[in-house]
């Protein structure tokens, strides 16, 4: 059944080309083969690899793109890694990216944060991932709902629109609850994998690959 679904997925994608097949948590289905692995899992994995082989050939399939994402590239099967012709390390968001994430996270939230507050929060979230930033905004936005007496007032018919604005103090509390989820050892492991298998190991090699810097 699993193999048929994989064939159907790629078949529909080819029929509707140009198409993109995005596989999140790629390591969960294309992990390294291990002794004692379930036969059904092996068949699905083999079928995906066969279909990816077809995508890499010249012809009509050039209009079909397979994209995978993983936080565990070290666990990918060697055959799967070879079929993924471009292997790109996406680094943690820098200050500008975190500022944009904060702005987007607060877009639909009533808040009383100043520009100084936002700059301080950008500095305080160095090392946070995109999901960490989203979690931080959600946690801070929930704080007004935890105010003493709010729940009973809401049950009594209080309009939720009178909820107070999110403040810097709410974010300070949220920073104590939502910490950076990617450790230094994990970052080093990603960098090492990128040095071995990444398409662009550093900016200099990227410029050379693009024909620049000559």
Automatic annotation (TrEMBL):
It comes from the Eukaryota. Residues 1-92 form the ATPase AAA-type core domain. Residues 164-198 form the Spastin/Vps4 C-terminal domain. Pfam families: AAA (PF00004), AAA_lid_3 (PF17862), Vps4_C (PF09336). Keywords: ATP-binding, Nucleotide-binding. Residues 115-147 form the AAA ATPase AAA+ lid domain. The keyword Nucleotide-binding applies. GO terms for molecular function: ATP binding; ATP hydrolysis activity. InterPro entries: AAA_lid_3, ATPase_AAA_core, ATPase_AAA_CS, MT-severing_AAA_ATPase, P-loop_NTPase, Spast_Vps4_C. Belongs to the AAA ATPase family. This is AAA+ ATPase domain-containing protein. It comes from Calcidiscus leptoporus. The lineage of its organism: Eukaryota, Haptista, Haptophyta, Prymnesiophyceae, Coccolithales.
């Amino acid at each position: 059944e699993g193999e048929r679904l994989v064939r159907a997925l790629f078949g529909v994608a080819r029929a509707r080309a140009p198409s993109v097949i995005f596989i999140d948590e790629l390591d969960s289905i294309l992990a390294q083969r291990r002794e004692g692995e379930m036969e059904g899992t092996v068949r699905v994995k083999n079928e995906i690899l066969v279909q990816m082989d077809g995508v890499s050939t010249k012809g009509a399939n050039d209009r079909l793109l397979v994209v995978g994402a993983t936080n565990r590239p070290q666990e990918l099967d060697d055959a799967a890694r070879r079929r993924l012709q471009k292997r790109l390390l996406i680094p943690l968001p820098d200050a500008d990216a975190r500022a944009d994430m904060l702005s987007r996270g607060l877009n639909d939230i009533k808040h009383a944060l100043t520009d100084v507050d936002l700059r301080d929060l950008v500095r305080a979230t160095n090392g946070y991932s995109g999901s960490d930033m989203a979690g931080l905004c959600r946690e801070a936005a929930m704080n007004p709902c935890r105010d003493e007496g709010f729940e009973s007032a809401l049950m009594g018919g209080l309009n939720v629109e009178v909820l107070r604005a999110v403040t810097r103090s709410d974010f300070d509390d949220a920073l104590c609850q939502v910490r950076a989820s990617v450790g230094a050892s994990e970052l080093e492991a990603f960098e090492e994998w990128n040095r071995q298998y990444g398409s662009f190991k550093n900016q200099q090699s990227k410029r050379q690959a693009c024909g620049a810097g000559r």
